[in-house]
Amino acid sequence: MTLVMYGPPLALIPSCNGSGITSAPAVGMVDDSAAFLAEVYQLADAGKLQDATDKIFETVDRCLLNEQFDYCNKLLSRIDPRRLPTALMRSFLTITSAAKDKLPARSAFHEQVFQEMSRLKGEEKAHRILGPLA
Fold first, then answer.
1. Domain range summary for the chain, segments of one domain joined by +
2. Class of residue 61 by CB neighbours under 10 A (exposed 0-12, middle 13-18, buried 19+)
3. What's the rounded Cα separation, in Å, for the pair 96 and 127?
4. Which of 14, 19, 35, 62 has the fewest CB atoms in 10 Å of its CB?
5. 15 forms bridges with which residues in the sheet?
């Protein structure tokens, strides 16, 4: 199999997870959102919430700064909020808040987070926590 790219070469966006360098794809490159999410889930399962938060913010922020909205949309559509602590659910919503007009998948993700947070903490608390992140 040959990968053909058109236009200038696109760099990978580095993200440091504390144990090495991983990458999020630049536009036109292979989508590794499943691998990124697997790493976030693994960090969450291990109780390494700060490492997971750092990974989310570093990776998603760089994608947004580089206007990689397709990648961010795919990422948001693939997240399973049931596999995340509420703090990490909020991390994804917080880092994508400023670009919500460019991320159609964010609205559906927000609704999934609201449903899961309502189940875990009650609907009133979920409204209070997530209202500013809508």
1. 13-133
2. middle
3. 18
4. 19
5. 22
